[in-house]
Specification:
Helices cover 16% and strands 37% of the residues. The protein has 231 residues and is an alpha+beta fold. It has a single domain, classed as Alpha-Beta Plaits, CATH 3.30.70. The strands form 3 sheets. Strands 1, 3, 6, 7, 8 and 9 form a 6-stranded antiparallel sheet that branches. A 5-stranded mixed sheet has the order 2-5-4-13-12, with no helix packed on it. β12 and β13 form a beta hairpin. α1 runs antiparallel to α2. The longest helix is centred in the first third of the chain and has 15 residues.
């Protein structure tokens, strides 16, 4: 297996709602999930190489091993935003709130990564050139508004000890750390189950990942997380 390292600078705030969160309580994960990263790669493959190459590559994209290295600090903005929600019952004729949607508020979190985020991808050697080309063209994680900018051409790396593995369950729970429930692709997930034009439901699994961070400051408007020393 070859490990490719890619460094990205987030250019906007990141937001990715956990699968268990509701639309009204839009909490965000602190990191992109393996599922989101693999789907971003598949999106690039389909848009730039075409349907047939993307479908052929899906099995090894699905099975990628992924690790991440984060900044020393992560800041989460907490806010309530006005949103439009599909109306369940019709509005009264002539009311100011008439129409198919009703106005309401929802809780939202947006994550600020002040420094570049490094990712490593474990892939078999024969697929390394293709992965390298597609990583260059990834420009968002999570929601489509979470834009990132690649800082340098992805290169082969041997050091993986400093990275948090997103595709492996945590074996031990340290004294200080944050648990994140991240979605990943089921090993049996077929291309038809990820194709948006197919009615088959995606197969996902949940991984429990421990981030070496602790909450150091918080208020109504923000939460500050800092890396735990010697972790």
């Amino acid at each position: 297996m070859v490990w490719l390292k890619a460094s990205y600078q987030p250019t906007t705030l990141f937001s990715l709602r956990p699968s268990w969160a509701t639309s009204s309580g839009g909490k965000s994960l602190l990191v992109p999930s393996p599922y989101a990263l693999k789907l971003a790669l598949l999106d690039v493959a389909l848009r730039t190489s075409g349907h047939a190459p993307g479908k052929k590559a899906w099995p090894w994209i699905r099975d990628l091993q992924i690790g991440i290295q984060l900044p020393e600090q992560i800041v989460v903005t907490n806010l309530f935003a006005k949103i439009l929600k599909l109306r369940r019952n019709p509005a009264d004729p002539g009311s100011a709130d008439a129409g198919p949607f009703q106005k309401t508020i929802g809780y939202r979190e947006y994550v600020y990564h002040p420094e570049p985020v490094d990712l490593i991808f474990g892939v078999v050697e024969k697929n390394q050139p293709q992965l390298q080309d597609w990583l260059v063209q990834v420009n968002y994680w999570g929601k489509r508004g979470g834009f990132v900018q690649l800082l340098a051409k992805p290169e082969v790396t041997e050091g993986t000890a400093e990275f948090i593995m997103l595709t492996a369950e945590a074996n031990q729970f340290p004294k200080m750390g944050l648990v994140q429930q991240l979605d990943d692709c089921d090993p049996k997930m077929k291309f038809e189950q990820v194709d948006i034009y197919n009615k088959k439901r995606p197969l996902r699994i949940t991984r429990h990942i421990i981030l070496p961070y602790r909450l150091t400051k918080s208020s109504r408007a923000y939460s500050l997380y800092e890396r735990v020393a010697n972790s």
